[in-house]
Design goal:
It is a single chain. The protein is α+β, with helices and mostly antiparallel strands. The chain folds into four domains: about 15-180, Beta Polymerase, domain 2; about 180-255, Hydrophobic Seed Protein; about 265-430, no CATH class; about 445-490, no CATH class. Helices cover about 55% and strands about 10% of the residues. It has 23 helices and eleven strands. It has helices at about 5-45, 55-65, 80-85, 135-140, 165-170, 180-185, 190-200, 210-215, 225-235, 240-250, 255-260, 280-295, 305-310, 315-320, 335-350, 355-365, 370-375, 380-390, 395-400, 410-435, 445-450, 455-475, 480-490; strands at about 50-55, 70-75, 90-95, 100-105, 110-115, 150-155, 160, 175, 205, 320-325, 330. Strands 3-4-5-2-1-6-7 form a seven-stranded mixed sheet. A two-stranded parallel sheet has the order 8-9. A two-stranded antiparallel sheet has the order 10-11. A hairpin with a 3-residue loop joins strand 6 (about 150-155) and strand 7. Helix 18 crosses helix 20 (about 410-435). The radius of gyration is 30 Å and the shape is elongated. The termini are far apart.
Length: about 500
């Protein structure tokens, strides 16, 4: 016998109420944990005739039971007055954000940021507001990006201020805006990327009206600098649920403007040319790479380089797709094309040079292993694999394993066995030869001495030749290395001063 709709509704309502009570208990517990600093500050401001509120992400995180030691406050006190109230209380004070009404301070292991109520106005051309200080908590909260960030707790009384149903949205794990999302995003288009970032970090779902506004206004993101886009994208990828954030970017069309190579991987698949949807495959590889990352280091920081490489490893496929006779599909050299594309996009997003180099190298190397699974590699090939990967080898192991998304269990098991075998061989050869430090058997000084040459291009070419030999044949004795150097020199027409 099925339950009546009213029974389901009341059960759902009861569950939401229970979750709301739990959230409020979390907030109290979290506040008690950091209470000395928060309450001292509240009492200090109240005694001076001002109001002080814990606000924004700090309240949200307290309700979620994950409050850290960085606390955000807002107050009616003007910045210079805030500085006076912090003096003599804080161990350290900094005022780099004072023109925006923010001062920072540090006391007893806790960092606090206190911002005067804001009532900013935007020209809707750039994103930097005309900073205006406000006089009410109501005016301050309505200008915040999302309802779950628009709650406050007054101190020291601990009275809860929730004017935009932020608690209800938090309990429902919903992301919505205090004002109309169109107005919020027109004021600051970066908030659209922040929506995707919060979906990734918190596991929330964007409300229908937020998704509609993001879709309609995606082009407005062009007002935002690449540097700010990059920061949000990196935070999104390092969140707990990055796939959700990426999907929101693609589904709303924002990715068309900030990472167009991603939606371009949605290759059309017809009944004659079956191959994986490269976009969906890439999301699965991202998921699997993160699983491997967490398994290897459960308490470690998220690996941005690995996650970028997993997401972008196949971006060269659309440009290299060829339909072969008989209905096959090929993507020859997509790793080469993809590495160049990854480098170009990451450079446009102003990523640091080392991140660009590492991600593009991983994209370039991710297919190399498949030659191993087709047939036995020589020790020389294994050495080259390790040498070319260099310090990226642990990440390359994870990326290659994550790249197996076949539903064919026998094929997946065979690939797994092949990679297990490769890792075992790497370990064996590394133990014998110290693979991490593959160098020629003669150094530059010895080359100059043996050939009687000064520093210059000849030394570099000889060194490179000896390193190639080292990779091919493993360690050589000194006599063999000297003989090989002399043989190479004679082939180059270099007179060898043999004794």
């Amino acid at each position: 016998m099925s339950s009546s709709p009213s029974h389901h509704d009341s059960a759902a309502s009861a569950e939401l109420q229970a979750r709301e009570r739990q959230a409020q208990r979390n907030a109290v517990v979290e506040l008690v944990r950091v209470a000395p600093v928060a309450e001292e500050l509240g009492e200090r401001f109240t005694a001076a005739g001002h109001r002080l509120y814990l606000v924004g992400g700090s309240v949200r995180d307290a309700l979620l039971g994950r409050l850290g030691t960085d606390l955000d406050f807002t107050t009616d006190a003007r910045p210079e007055r805030v500085r006076e109230l912090l003096s003599g209380w804080a161990e350290t004070i900094w005022d780099t954000g004072i023109e925006f009404g923010t001062l920072g301070a540090y006391r007893h292991g806790t960092t606090v940021e206190i911002t005067t109520f804001r009532a900013d106005t935007y020209d809707r051309v750039g994103r930097n507001p005309e900073v205006d200080f406000g006089d009410t908590i109501e005016g301050d909260l309505v200008r915040r990006d999302f309802t779950v960030n628009a709650m406050a707790i007054e101190l020291p009384s601990r009275s809860f201020v929730d004017l935009h149903d932020g608690m209800a949205d938090l309990v429902a794990r919903r992301l919505d805006t205090p004002a109309a999302p169109e107005d919020s995003f027109a004021d600051d288009p970066l908030r659209m990327l922040r929506a995707a970032r919060f979906v990734s970090q918190l596991g929330f779902t964007a409300s229908d009206r937020v998704v509609r506004a993001m879709t309609d206004m995606a082009g407005e993101i062009a007002r935002i600098t690449p540097e700010r886009v990059q920061v949000e994208l990196s935070k999104l990828l390092c969140g707990e649920f990055p796939r959700r954030g990426v999907e929101l970017l693609v589904d709303t069309g924002l990715a068309d403007h900030v990472l167009p190579e991603l939606p371009a991987m949605k290759l059309e698949i017809d009944e004659h040319h079956q191959h994986k949807d490269v976009y969906r495959h890439s999301l699965t590889v991202l998921d699997q790479a993160i699983d491997l990352e967490r398994a290897a280091d459960p308490d470690g920081e998220p690996d941005l380089v690995l996650r970028l490489a997993a997401l972008l490893h196949d971006i060269g496929k659309p440009a290299t797709r060829r339909f072969e006779p008989g209905g096959g599909v090929s993507f020859h050299h997509h790793e080469v094309v993809g590495a160049k594309m990854a480098r170009k996009r990451l450079r446009a997003l102003r990523y640091p040079k080392d991140v660009i180099n590492q991600v593009s190298d991983l994209v370039y190397l991710h297919l190399r292993f498949h030659g191993y699974s087709d047939g036995q590699w020589t020790d020389s090939a294994v050495r080259r694999y390790v040498n070319d990967a260099g310090p990226l080898l642990p990440r390359l192991h994870k990326l290659v394993r994550a790249d197996c998304t076949t539903r064919n269990k026998r094929k997946a098991a065979a690939l797994q066995r092949a990679y297990d075998d490769l890792e075992e061989r790497i370990a064996r050869i590394a133990a014998e030869e110290d693979l991490a430090k593959v160098r020629p058997d003669l150094d530059g000084n010895e080359i100059m001495q043996l050939l009687g040459v000064d520093p210059g291009p000849v030394v570099g070419k000889a060194w490179k030749h000896l390193k190639e030999l080292r990779l091919d044949r493993g360690p050589l004795s000194r006599e063999e290395a000297v003989e090989e150097l002399y043989r190479w020199a004679e082939e180059q027409g270099i007179e060898v001063p043999r004794s």
